[in-house]
Specification:
The protein is mainly β and about 220 residues long. The strands form 3 sheets. It has a 6-stranded antiparallel beta sheet with strand order 9-10-6-8-7-11, covered by helices on one side. The protein has a 3-stranded antiparallel beta sheet with strand order 3-5-4, with no helix packed on it. It has a two-stranded antiparallel sheet with strand order 1-2. The longest helix has 11 residues.
Length: about 220
């Protein structure tokens, strides 16, 4: 792959530099990353670097920083960091109180499609005493979190609640990840404020033994 660099100055000649991408150092092409912290203010860079160094040893990963969502994506080839859009990330989601007659791959696909792109799901089992099924999706973090989904039947309507595993800080007013309610509006903490969202969206982690998953 060849790369042509040039600058066209108004009223002047264009300076062009021809580069062969194959000659670039291998390390540059394999370990370059770009990240985004979904927080209302910039973090302490030195603390972030220290945490990242510890988290990535050995072959670890960092998905949260100081309670906020931290998304990391690789830079592929000659991509410019500024051109990389970081607005999706993976989450394990739980669909609660789903009738066992709907414990099927088709129904899980339908439910997951309302949230984002399905990556994999845990094979449901009627022998599992849990009140939920799990699936992993690519969520659009720009959009508000969904409380749940309504399934309409011939003579009934079911409301299936969602909860999200390892959910970072999010706004109880608008449901978006990346800020808290008091980060963009002032309010009386002693006042009786009714929020549209709440802690029920955070899945309670348990010692459940998870079943095998099916990937896409």
């Amino acid at each position: 792959m060849s790369l042509v660099l040039g600058g066209d100055l108004e009223g002047g000649e264009e300076d062009v530099l021809n580069l062969d991408f194959a000659l670039m150092p291998t390390v540059v092409r394999t370990i370059c990353l770009v990240g985004k912290i979904c927080a209302p203010k910039a973090p302490n860079v030195f603390t972030l670097i220290e945490v990242m160094v510890k988290a990535f040893k050995p072959k670890g990963k960092l998905t949260h920083f100081d309670g906020h969502l931290f998304i990391i994506k690789p830079i592929v080839g000659a991509e410019q960091p500024s051109s990389i859009v970081i607005d999706t990330t993976s989450f394990w989601v739980r669909a609660h109180d789903l009738p066992m007659v709907f414990y099927s791959e088709e129904v899980i696909r339908y439910i997951a499609k309302k949230l984002g792109v399905l990556e994999c799901f845990e094979k449901p089992s009627v022998d599992d005493p849990s009140d939920f099924v799990r699936f992993k999706v690519q969520l659009d973090i720009v959009k508000p979190l969904l409380h749940g989904i309504r399934i309409k039947l011939t003579n009934a309507s079911l409301w299936i609640l969602f909860s999200y595993e390892s959910l970072p800080f999010f706004c109880y007013n608008c449901g978006c990840i990346g800020h808290l309610f008091n980060n963009f509006v002032s309010y009386d903490r002693d006042a009786d404020v009714e929020f549209l969202y709440g802690g029920s969206l955070k899945a309670i982690l348990s010692c459940r033994s998870y079943a095998p998953t099916t990937n896409y």
